[in-house]
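Listing S7. Sequence submitted for prediction.
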Amino acid sequence: MRLGCDNVLGSTAQFDSCGVCHGTNETCTTTKKTFRKNMKKKSYAITSIPVGARSIHIFDKTQSGHSLVLRNVDTGENVIDTRSIEWQTTTSRYVISAGVKFTFSIKEGGLRRVTSSPGPILNKMSLKIYRNKTDSKVPSVVCKFVTEKEKDAMFLAARRATVKNIPKLLSYIWVKYGVSECSATCGGGFQMEIYKCKKTDSMKIVNERKCQTNAPVLRIPCAENACKTYSWDVSNWSDCSKPCGEGERKRTVKCVRVTNGKSKGMKPKLCMAISDRPNTTEKCSNRPC
């Protein structure tokens, strides 16, 4: 049997967009910030997202390739930072911060979109954009989130009390701490995200048993570049140097690197590390003179 937002078993009561039980969205406000300008400076602040915000949605319409950083202001953690290499080697991921789950996708053109679980967020967030010197596109970044209208001091105090009490329900959460080394150097490998259990009010690392759920498990593709394969490229033997008796014949032997079916001449020592160099000459005899 379903439990409604009014904590009554069997109730059909639901939260509205801004978290009001039995609400009709009349007290909800959707904030939309759009950033669109030439990237003349190194970075620009797009917006800040207050404690209690819900349903965060961020996307770059132009997929300009400039880097976005979503930061947890209270903890100092970069929840999303597309400047780093690890963010450029995956197609879709998620991370938990400020008491909500942020799901995002990345393509070759850069960050595609970020969405959060309903919330509310427990920490103040900030969104900045950093210039990519190799990309001249003008970004068009949109950040939307929902908050509740605060009509009077009593309502404001009640709202703050609600947000303040949320950490009691989410005392411990998994927070992304880093990633493991790639399992391969080429040809396709994977990294594992590393999570630590933290206490929400202090964000201190605690024993993993405090987090009552299993840590998120996510494999991130890495080292997807083709491996460089070195081999000896050997031509056919030439004709024997003498029509009769003992002579000599020759062939060319080159070290090549094969990548995606294409070969390129390389230094012989690279192939000699794999196998001995084949002979370039040998004795031959057609018939006795």
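Caption to Listing S7: primary sequence and predicted structure tokens for the chain studied. Confidence is low (pLDDT under 50) at residues 151-156, 162-169. Helices lie at 153-169, 268-272.
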